[in-house]
Design brief:
This protein is mainly beta. The chain has helices at 41-46, 114-118; strands spanning 17-24, 30-38, 57-60, 75-80, 86-92, 106-111, 125-129. The N and C termini lie far apart (40 Å).
Length: 131
């Protein structure tokens, strides 16, 4: 049995803006999704509040947990570790408080049901492309 050793994590310095989320599926294919990146306190605090729809996904970084108070739509939430591996995926209705995940460093948010369509689930790996 061969143990895979993780490389030292790359320090990510994202800024508020747009990019692409690449979901690497188990079958070797990948899906690209438009991504909004929120790294500043102000952008993370606002998040998806006040929106009726989401085009793609939103990455909150750093983040360990989220809430859906004052949201209008249910959302999918994926908790990511420092290697951008998915720890857990949950669907949250408006007005809920999500439990924080201990190893979570980033959180992805999308419209409810979208992540299943992308093939994003527990243990999946994603990458972020920024222009």
């Amino acid at each position: 049995m061969e143990l895979r050793r993780r490389e030292k994590p790359v320090r990510r310095k994202w800024r508020d803006g747009r990019g692409m989320l690449v979901v690497h599926r188990e079958d070797g294919t990948s899906v690209s999704v438009p991504l909004e990146i929120a790294t500043s306190y102000r952008a993370r605090t606002k998040g998806l509040l006040g929106r009726d729809a989401v085009d793609g996904a939103m990455l909150l970084s750093p983040a360990g947990g989220v809430h859906t108070f004052r949201m209008r739509i249910p959302i999918d939430v994926a908790y990511l570790d420092r290697h951008l591996d998915v720890i857990a995926v949950r669907t949250m209705a408006p007005g809920r408080l999500g439990l924080p995940r201990l190893r979570s460093r980033h959180v992805l948010e999308a419209e409810a049901g979208a992540m299943a369509g992308w093939g994003l689930g527990d243990g999946a790996r994603v990458s972020v492309l920024v222009p």
